[in-house]
Structures are given as C-alpha cells and as structure tokens.
Design a protein that fits this description.
By secondary structure, the protein is an alpha/beta fold. The protein is 33% helix and 22% strand. It is built from ten helices and seven strands. A seven-stranded mixed sheet has the order 3-2-1-4-5-7-6. A hairpin with a 4-residue loop joins strand 6 and strand 7.
C-alpha cells in the first residue's frame, strides 16, 4: 500500500457558518445522514443520473494515482473511486464536517488505499496529488469559498495532474425540468444559481496554468470539467 499522504489532520473548531445555517439538515443531522446516504435517494435527487455521473467522474482517473476527493459524497462514490485507483494508488477524502468523515470511513472499510480526514478545503493543502475530484461541491458553497476551494484544488496537483469537477450547469431552455430546478435552487440550494452561468476556469487566478475541457449532459443540467496542469518547461 502506498504511504499515507503528508496532509496533517486539521482540527475544525467551528463549522463554516454557511454550512451550519443552510445545510445542517442535510449534512450535520445524525438523523438524516443515514437516510440521505441511501443509493435510491441519491439517484432520485439527481433525476436517475447518479450512477452515470459517478462513472463519468471516476473514468477520469487512472489506477495507481494519488487522488484528493474534495468533500464526502452520499452514495457509493468514494468506494468506487477507491477501487478505481486500486491498491497501488491512494485516495484521500477531506471534509470539514466530522460526521461526514465518520460516515465515509464506514463505507471505505476494506479499502486500505483510502482514508478520510477532517480538513477545511478553503485552506491550502500541503500535499501534492496526481489528481483531485470535486463532485457536486461547488454549488453548495458561497462565491468566496468557491473561489478558495477551486484555487486550492488546482494548487494541490502536480504538473500533468488533473482536477475533475462535476456539478450543476444551466439547463437548456427546452429542458422540462428547468422550471422545477429553478425552485430547487431557490429554496434548497441558495448558492447554486451563482455557479450555473460561471465558467469554473474563471474562478481561479491560476487558470492559465491549466488546459480546460468541458462536457455537459442531461440537457445541460450537469457539467464535467477537467483542468489539466501544463507540464513545466525544461
């Protein structure tokens, strides 16, 4: 098994205000976490696209890589990603909420190549990874924190490394779910609307050091963006 990453566990004395105020019911309540972590619930939230989106993201990684996962994800995403990197790779999951770290650790039992730690992704991480993954996190954080997270993920990968973002996107005008998603974003995801029309590459000053590739699916409702750090010139 590869050695553990050099990231030291960062104690989080106070959870971010936006998380406690807006998403306590979804991510911090021990009564709802087990229910929301069920695969049928995750699939329903993503309109039946959860498995497809997870495969879409995981396919961007290569066995043997060291990968940083930004924030825990409900469903089977983390075990799937851990199996993708394999026993010769390493998966490090970082999340600011201890309850979420405890929850994902239970799902990673039997996968020694994976670990989960409490850390604030708005702070720069010390370790360097082959790649990083940000799966449906950016729409859940305010604009300021979103910029910090994107910048820190880009800084965490070595030359030639990749950062993979999967998140919501502005659906096509004809999309039958567009009006309903507008209500969802208004009442349940108050930070999401500021992401829909904002290219992820515009969120980081270091964007020019990367090559950017973007795809959308399900009528434009979801996006996959891959940022690849350019190799250092000799």
């Amino acid at each position: 098994m590869p050695p553990s990453s050099d990231i030291a566990t960062q104690p989080v004395e106070v959870l971010p205000d936006y998380l406690s105020r807006t998403y306590s019911w979804a991510y911090l309540d021990p009564r709802t976490v087990p229910w929301l972590d069920r695969s049928p619930v995750v699939s329903a939230i993503l309109w039946g696209n959860a498995a497809r989106l997870m495969r879409w993201a995981v396919a961007q990684f290569v066995p043997g890589e060291t990968v940083l996962q930004a924030a825990c994800v409900y469903g089977g995403f983390s075990p799937m990603l851990a199996r993708r990197v394999g026993e010769q790779g390493r998966l490090t999951v970082l999340d600011v909420a201890p309850i979420q770290v405890d929850n994902v650790r239970r799902k990673l039992v039997g996968l020694p190549q994976a670990e989960a730690r409490v850390a604030d992704l708005t702070r720069r991480q010390d370790a360097c990874f082959d790649a990083a993954c940000c799966f449906f996190l950016l729409h859940e954080v305010p604009a300021r924190e979103r910029r910090l997270i994107v910048a820190n993920l880009l800084a965490a990968v070595r030359p030639g490394g990749r950062v993979v973002f999967v998140d919501y996107h502005r659906a096509s005008a004809w999309h039958p779910l567009r009006p309903l998603m507008g209500l969802v974003f208004r009442w349940l995801e108050p930070f999401a609307r500021s992401l829909l029309d904002t290219p992820i590459e515009s969120l980081a000053e270091a964007a020019s050091d990367f090559e950017w590739r973007k795809q959308t699916c399900f009528g434009g409702l979801y996006q996959l963006v891959v940022a690849t750090r350019r190799q250092v010139s000799e």
